[in-house]
Structure formats: C-alpha cells, structure tokens
Amino acid sequence: MAPRAETYRRLPGRRRALASSASLWMGSDHILLVKSAWFREEYKRFYLRDIQAILVAPCARFYVSTPMLVCALLWLLPGLFMAFWPSAIAIVWGVGTTAMAATWLAISIASSCRCRIYTAVSKDDLPSLYRTWTARKFLRQVKPWIEQAQGVVDAGWAEAERSNAGPVAVAQAPAGPPRRVAARSHTLASDLFVLSLFVGSLLDFATARSYGSAWSRVNIGMTLVQLAGAIVVLVQYSRSGLGRAMQRLAIAALVLVGVMFYAQTFTFYFVSALNPVSTNPVSFTIPIVAFRQVRDGLGLLLAFIGAAIILRGGYRRQPDIIED
Amino acid sequence: MPVPCARCDSPLPLWELASADAAVCTTCGSSNTVRVFPALFAAPSAPALPEIALDGEAACFDHPSKRAVAACHQCGRFVCLLCSVEFGGQVWCPTCVAAGKGQSQAVYLEPTRTLYDSIALAVPLVSLIFWPVTILTGPGALVFSAMTWKRPLSLVRRTRWRFVVASLIGLAQTAGWLWLIAYWWQAFRMGQYGAPR
Fold this sequence. Notes:
The structure holds 2 protein chains of 2 kinds. By secondary structure, chain A is of the alpha+beta class. Chain A has 9 helices and 7 strands, in the order βββββααββααααααα. Chain A has 2 domains: 92 residues, Roll (PH-domain like); 136 residues. The longest helix of chain A has 31 residues. The C terminus of chain A is likely disordered. Chain B is of the alpha+beta class. A two-stranded antiparallel sheet of chain B has the order 1-2. A two-stranded antiparallel ribbon of chain B has the order 3-4. In chain B, strands 5-6 form a two-stranded antiparallel ribbon. β5 of chain A pairs antiparallel with β2 of chain B.
C-alpha cells in the first residue's frame, strides 16, 4: 500500500525571479520548502516535530521580484518618449518614478529580513520570506501547527536550562542584564568621512552657480571621497570595530548619493527637454541649482548627525567578559 | 542548544532568547524575532539497538538474529528496529526506501523533480525569438507534451495547463508551417518562383 498523496497548502511568502523561485507549503506533518531553478524543483521537508526554532532577523534585502520588474518596465517604457510629452506630465512621471524608487529603497532597507529555520541537524534559510510583514504572517500561521505537534514551551525554560546546565553555563548566562561595554563610536576613517560630508556639501552649495569645469571636478572628487569613506565605515562596522550609529549614517550617505545621482540625471533631462533652445547651460538653470541645494542641505544634515555621533559617543551591546 | 543569529551566525545568549520575542545579537546588534519550540530542549535520542530474536520469534529479513518489530508496508518483509524506516505513518524496509527513490510512490522521499510541463511550455515560446526554428519546436512541443503528459508534476502543482498551452502553441506553429509549405508548393506549381510547369 503506497502512502496517500500529500495535499499542500500555500504558506505566506513567495520569491520569484526570472529563472528561479522559492515558496513554502504546509503538509500534514511538515513544512515543505520548494526551490526551483529553470526546470527543476528541489524539496526540503521540515517536520513539525523536529523544528527547534524559527528566527527572523531584520536586514537589507535589495530584491526585485519578476512581477515588480515587469511593472517597473511598463512604467519606465513610456519614458523613452518623454521628449514629446507636455511638461506637466513629464514632471508627474519623474516625481512618480522617484517616489517609487524611494519606496522600494525604504522597504528594502527598513522592512526586509532574513528568515531561518532550525532543526537538530539543519539550519536553512527560507528565501521566500524576505519582507518582515510576510515573515510575521508566516510565523502566525505555523506556530499553532508546531505547538500542536510539540506542545508549548514552558515559560520558565530559561531558568530550568540554567539550573540543568551546571556552573559553567550559569557563568556564561548571567541572570542580570548584560553589561554594556562602550564601543568605539568613531574612528579616524569615520571622522574623515563626516568631514568629507561637511566639506563636500558646503563646497557644492557655494559653487552651485559657478561656471567652470574645475569646480565640477572638485565636487565629483568630494563625492568619491564620501563614497569611499562610507564603504570604509561599513567595513569597520562589519569587523565589530565601530558603532551602529555610524554604520547607519554611512548607509544613509550611500543612499543619498545614489538616489540624488539618479534624480539629478532625471531632472537634467527634464530641463533639457523643456528648454531645448535656452542659451543658458542646462547645469545652471534654476531647477538644477535648486536641486543641488536640496542635495547639499541633506548632505549637511547627515554631516551634523555624524558630528553629533562623534561628540556624544555611542554604546553598543557586547558579549560579557567571563571572569574566573 | 545554541540558537545562532540569523544574520551573523553568532550564538544568541540565553537571556536574550528568554527575555522576549526579540533577541538582540550581542555581536552584530540585530534584533532577531525568535520562536523557540520544545524540540530545542529535547535530549538527543539514543541509537536504536535491535533485540536478539528468541526461538519461534519472527526475525528481521536482513538480520536473522534480530527480532522483527514490523513488516514493510511495500514488500511485507519483516524488519528489526535498526532496519525500520518510518515516514508518513508507515514503516518501510531499507530496500524499498532505496528502490522507491524517485518514483511517484515515494513522494515522502523525493528531493527533486523535473518540471516537464515547464519544459514543454518553454520550448515553443522561446523558439519564437528565432521563428524559423519553430518548424522543429512546434511538432517537438506536441510530441514532448504527449510523451510526458503522465509524468508526475511538481509536488505542489496540481494542474496540467502548461501542457495544454504548450500543445496549443505547438499545434498552431505546426499548422502555420503546414499552411506555409502548402502555399509555397502551390506558388511553385503556378510558376511564381521561376519554375514554370
């Protein structure tokens, strides 16, 4: 007698790319992870009785799903004919594009996560869960099923574990709150990075109306210095040498430079399309200058925040030092 | 019993796991939403040790000296504690588990499947990029769909609409080519291509 065919119910979350996808399904006694690539599907079963823990950690996931990519292309395609549009429609289209890009960036940075499922013998990522709201929905759905299979964890399990584990474990897991050890809130590289934000923004602000390619080169050079500084800060953070506040500042600076670069390019072409016979160089028309001033204002704001971080000092949780 | 952080793989401290739903990693500082279940605290089970079969007792097919504890649901052979493989509420012997791998009856074991319906659909669609190829891919899609129609689909997909669409596209391409060939033949016979009768 063969086992009866399993009927699966779809669980929240699905990841679709051009040639691959991932999804989660609920079986009678297990969760099925389905990963497909081209014309092959891989299955992994997590039996409800074996699941030890499910973790969701927030982290940036810059992922574009296929449906989203199609929508974006459909939206961007008319942009090829922008030169023939009335100015009002072109501006609305540009604002809409920028708003959508900003929304995608914000969601990718602030509302994305990595989800993992643990059993006694495995530790697997769940690629279909990459947004926090989907992960929460998934947890809400599967938790009752797992608890039905395993029972509920006793509220005092931590105390019980500590007492069972003996003196070593007690020493490793103190009852009180962990000590907070001061981490380096800034380094030489981060100081230079904040300085480059200050100098770059002020210089660009001061030379927004100046003609000449020399200033333009200096401003590009300062932007490159800012980018390099932000990358160094991120590397130092990943090596646990720098506080989290400075890491966030570096991410914000990178996002600002990236978004503003594309937004400035869009604005440039708008203005070019709207004033094809203007004698004034496009780079120095009022919208472009105003745009640069807004960018410099935001850059200065970040620089002030960086200065505040340096002056105030940050704290980050560190593992406790076990003293014999 | 360590539960590693989902972001940096450092073990999350016990006090963080116990404190609330959000466990802050002491290494990377990320706030993990954690759900722990009783399996986390279960002691690892001891390896199964089959008992010696006494006189008159049923013995394992592969280990005649060991006492049988169940019969295989596939072949009916007796299996001892060591040989019994349980899944889906049934007991199988190791031979049936190995033999059943990849077959439809062993759906509980299948780690992969080939999506024949997706192949059938992709062939005539992709060939449209270079349309002369459709002279081969149109009939090919029809034949392939017919040959693989009864192959097991994805574990979670239940319909064969891809096969149907692939067959329709293949049929349309084949019909188009037949019409084109007939048209050319007719034109050739009428002398339009410089070969009068």
